[in-house]
């Protein structure tokens, strides 16, 4: 599976592949404030390193969990940033549904401060002895957060913000950045909500 696309398991036990479309949006999938903490993936710094090695950051140049440095304090910073995403991103999505347990807010001065303070460093690439590209390691959490902050700033500070979406499926609050060319992605995944919608339509048509 390509890094950045995640296998998710819903409460009703359906497994599907979901592509959040950007690294910042992907971070939301790693867990969240209650009741979303039941999906928590980042319980320890090692968990976070392993999660990052399968993320969008590794999409065109892989790295391993051992290449990433995450301390306990880093983990707390990652989760603070993630919490900001939970509260702010739904408010940027036209016709977003309510997200259970989340008080959605406009980007506050404190949010903007956290976002801007996260900018600065991003992961670096360099050449190895054979002249091939590689990551300069360790990749630090500060760099990871810098990448996430820049990603989010590029989206919400431009007309790309209109490409933020929430899945249109019933009871589905998955959020993504729509990278489709026509910009008409509606579902978290076809396997999950796209399919439920098709089946729903079929049933509607055949019970008339
Ligand atoms: Zn969905």
Distance between the termini: 41 Å
Unreliable parts:
none
DSSP strand count: 8
What name is given to the CATH topology? Answer: Jann2411-like fold
Most strands sheet: 2 strands, antiparallel
CATH C-level class: Mainly Alpha
Mean pLDDT: 93
Task: State Rg.
Answer: 18 Å
CATH superfamily: Jann2411-like domain
**Structural class by SSE content:** alpha+beta
Main-sheet strand order equals 1-2
Task: Compute the number of helices.
Answer: 6
Helix proportion range = 25-40%
Number of domains: 1
Please trace the helix and strand order, writing H or E for each element. Answer: EEHHEHHEEEHEEH
Protein name: Zf-CGNR multi-domain protein
InterPro entries: ABATE (IPR010852), ABATE_dom_sf (IPR023286), Znf_CGNR (IPR021005)
Domain Zinc finger CGNR: 163-206
Pfam families: ABATE (PF07336), zf-CGNR (PF11706)
Give me the secondary-structure topology.
Blueprint: E1 6-9, E2 15-18, H1 23-28, H2 45-52, E3 68-69, H3 72-88, H4 109-118, E4 125-127, E5 133-135, E6 139-140, H5 141-156, E7 164-166, E8 175-177, H6 190-207
Parallel strand pairs: 3-6
Antiparallel strand pairs: 1-2, 4-5, 7-8
The protein binds zinc ion.
Provide a descriptive summary of the structure in words.
InterPro entries: ABATE (IPR010852), ABATE_dom_sf (IPR023286), Znf_CGNR (IPR021005). It comes from Kribbella antibiotica. The protein is of the alpha+beta class and 208 residues long. It has a single domain (6-207), classed as Jann2411-like fold. 36% of the residues lie in helices and 12% in strands. The protein has helices at 23-28, 45-52, 72-88, 109-118, 141-156, 190-207, and strands at 6-9, 15-18, 68-69, 125-127, 133-135, 139-140, 164-166, 175-177. Strands 1-2 form a two-stranded antiparallel sheet. A two-stranded parallel sheet has the order 3-6. A hairpin with a 5-residue loop joins β4 (125-127) and β5 (133-135). The radius of gyration is 18 Å and the shape is globular. The relative contact order is 0.15. The model has no long low-confidence stretch (mean pLDDT 93). The chain binds zinc ion. Zinc ion is lined by residues 167, 169, 172, 174, 187-188, 192-193. Zinc ion binds next to α6.
């Amino acid at each position: 599976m390509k890094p950045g696309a995640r296998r998710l398991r819903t409460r009703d036990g359906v497994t599907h592949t979901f592509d959040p479309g950007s690294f910042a949006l992907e971070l939301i999938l790693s867990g969240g404030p209650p009741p979303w903490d039941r999906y928590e993936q980042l319980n320890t710094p090692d968990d976070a390193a392993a999660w990052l090695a399968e993320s969008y950051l590794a999409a065109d140049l892989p790295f391993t969990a051992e290449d990433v440095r995450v301390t306990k304090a880093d983990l707390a910073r990652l989760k603070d940033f993630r919490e900001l995403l939970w509260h702010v991103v739904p408010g940027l999505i036209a016709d977003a549904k309510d997200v259970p347990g989340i008080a959605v807010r406009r980007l506050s001065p404190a949010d903007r401060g956290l976002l801007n303070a996260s900018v600065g460093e991003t992961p670096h690439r360099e050449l190895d002895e054979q002249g091939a590209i590689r990551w300069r390691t360790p990749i630090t959490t500060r760099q990871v957060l810098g990448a996430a902050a820049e990603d989010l700033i590029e989206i919400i500070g431009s007309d790309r913000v209109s490409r933020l979406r929430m899945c249109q499926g019933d009871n589905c609050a998955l959020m993504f950045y729509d990278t489709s060319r026509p910009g008409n992605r509606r579902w978290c995944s076809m396997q999950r909500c796209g399919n439920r919608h098709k089946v729903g339509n079929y049933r509607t048509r055949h019970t008339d």
